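As a warm-up, study this chain.
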Amino acid sequence: MENVGLIGLSRQVTLERQLDVVANNIANINTNGFKADKSMFEEYLRTGAHEDNFVGRDRRVSFVQDRATLHDFASGPTEQTKNPLDVAIDGNAFLVVQTPNGPRYTRDGSMQINAQGQLVTKSGSPVLGTSGPIVFQPGDKNINIAADGNITVLEGVNRVDSVRGKLSLVSFAQAQQLLKDGSNLYSAPAGATPQPTTTSKVNQGFVEKSNVNSVMEMTRMIDVTRAYTQISAMLLAQGDLRKSAIEKLADVPA
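Now compare it with the structure written out below.
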């Protein structure tokens, strides 16, 4: 394949992956705590042209290579729900969630209480406190979640607060190392150690919405689609040119 074909193909592959990232962002516009992803590209220079003969030294050929997908951990807008079990995190911390595959980390503070009295996410995974799962008693009322994550209730007819636990808030020195596990959960690979943090606070009765900018993502999708179409047209024109050249050579008398 000629260089122009290889270069165009390399760009189309990266555009296809970028389109997947943009489409996933758009699909999660309404997912609480979702963090948008961004593609990062770099230029890959091959040491020499493969099939062309230039005067002097071969020229280097420039390809496109997608290097990584970055997480945009900017805070999303918060929405007041007035649900006492909802919290929005003010800061860079994550809530810790217990899953069958181990602990996961999320910014989705939309919570509920399951049949066993555990504080869980909307998907049913227990939300961990500093001492493990947080469990409420049947007679608990007036649930209060303080800014530092301490959870207190009025138990039965008592008028004295009873402590039910404290939300575990953790942060990471290099949050970009986190791996997405579903829409708004992250897993920590080896080397990414969660650290308890006291600098972040929670706001009860609020949830953090997705940080996806719908207008920007739609614009990006249009740009990616347009670029892909232009490269397809260029490759098609290149193919027609080669076909025409071959046909003309075939007409040359031997």
